[in-house]
Design brief:
By secondary structure, the chain is an all-alpha fold. It contains eight helices and two strands. The chain has one domain: Arp2/3 complex 21 kDa subunit ARPC3 (Orthogonal Bundle), CATH 1.10.1760. The longest helix has 29 residues. It is globular, with a radius of gyration of 17 Å. The N terminus is likely disordered.
């Protein structure tokens, strides 16, 4: 019941996951989807590149947040990201490079980690309003979602780590733009591409 949602439009995961047997129970389906979103993001977090000139690594988990929100919607998407942060805080090695714990979360990536549920909720809203079904609107949504990581991540570099605004942008934004473009291309393949494979881009009435 806690994860139940009634969106204006189906999300891709809601359309793909069977609704019979044990999965006919909405709470069971929701719980499984939340756990799947968490595990998927944890797996992508192990794709990381450490750069010598910035304390923030390039990680695949931001793609996980973008896709979790888009696939799961405004409630299940951020719920999966909150679960991801919670299990990481409790010591499960789900962050970049198998890191975990409160001490790690309080480092350079705190602002970016806080952005995960915010990004997922935003992407879920776009998906529930059909933005993930068309190329142009999906790209626009993904760009907005990607920018939110910087909106929350860069201020922490400035306020929490004492970096200058120029240094924070140079170390916390510019090195990741090409990677973000690649992640957007991947997400576009998954989202509008997935809807095309289903043979529909129409919202549920």
């Amino acid at each position: 019941m806690a994860f139940a949602t009634n969106p204006r439009s189906d999300t891709l995961a809601q359309r793909l996951v069977p609704q019979h047997g044990i999965l006919a129970n909405q709470d069971v389906r929701a719980t499984l989807l939340v756990v799947a979103g968490c595990l998927f993001t944890a797996l992508l977090a192990q794709i990381r590149i450490y750069l010598p000139f910035t304390p923030v690594p390039i990680v695949g988990s931001t793609l996980g947040a973008l896709l979790a929100g888009s696939l799961l919607g405004t409630r299940l998407g951020p719920a999966s990201m909150l679960l991801y942060l919670a299990v990481g805080a409790l010591g499960m090695p789900v962050f970049a490079g198998g890191n975990s714990g409160i001490e790690y979360m309080q480092g350079a990536t705190l602002g970016y980690l806080i952005a995960y549920p915010v990004v997922a909720a935003t992407m879920g809203w776009f998906a529930e309003h059909g933005w993930d079904r068309k190329l142009k609107t999906n790209v626009a949504a993904l760009v907005i979602g990607s920018l939110l990581f910087y909106v929350l991540g860069v201020p922490w570099l400035i306020l929490g780590l004492g970096m200058s605004p120029i240094a924070a942008i140079a170390g916390g934004v510019l090195p990741f733009l090409i990677g973000d473009a690649i992640k957007i291309l991947v997400a576009v393949g998954v989202l509008p591409g997935g809807w095309r494979l289903l043979g529909t881009d129409k919202q549920r009435s």
